[in-house]
Amino acid sequence: MSQSVIWWRISVVAAIAMCIVFSLSATGQGKPPSLGMATVDINKIQAQYKQMNLLQTDLNVLKQRLAGQLDRRQQMPLLSEEDQKTLDAIYAKDVAAQTADDKKKIEEITNRGQALNNEFTALRQKAEKDLTDADKKRIKELEDLYVKSQQELGNLRDQSENTIKQFVTQHSEELTNNMRNAIKKIAEQKGIAIVFTSEIAPYAGTDITDQVIAELNKK
User: Fold this and answer.
1) Which end of the chain is more exposed for a tag (fewer CB within 10 A), N or C?
2) For the whole model, what pTM was predicted?
3) What is the spatial distance between Cα 213 and Cα 50, in angstroms, rounded to a whole number?
4) Contact present, 113 and 79 (Cβ < 8 Å)
5) In 3D, which of 88, 58, 68, 38 has the Cα closest to residue 211?
6) What is the mean pLDDT of each run of 10 residues along the chain (219 residues)?
């Protein structure tokens, strides 16, 4: 998912607002207000705003970790949830931080998951006449495990989606406020009364995008 899509809330806020109007005389800060107008390029700000890029990296790491949890449960659906969580904890570490014991545990659990898959496949491929009572009992056990794992997978998928949404919502609000405050500060300094987004008014006065980016990246 691209940055512009992930942080869609910021662009929506900017587009809905259409313009930002500041009453400079009420704050007593900056130059006296004029009838001057300016524009900001929201897309450029998003691309060069360092905090947003750092959060984008954090979001990508989060998405990759959650996707790994789902993939492992799809590939090895017969593993116990305890084994799955053990793998989750190990893979949550940086590769460089994984110990020899971690790697041994990954191999052990992965081999167990593959062995269960192979056992289930082999039993289901047997002709009915060749199945023993023990085979039938084992098939039922594995089928029950599979059904349970699919229910857990569905719950985990919902939880993952909610986690990502919460991350985006929380940080979008923070970034939006930072951007608006930076625009307000630069506008006050220049005595500008109205700031439009460049998507709405491409030629409405001075472009203050670079100054806003510089202000945001001070932090």
Assistant:
1) C
2) 0.77
3) 9
4) yes
5) 38
6) 48 44 44 68 89 92 95 96 95 93 97 97 94 95 95 95 92 87 90 80 78 91
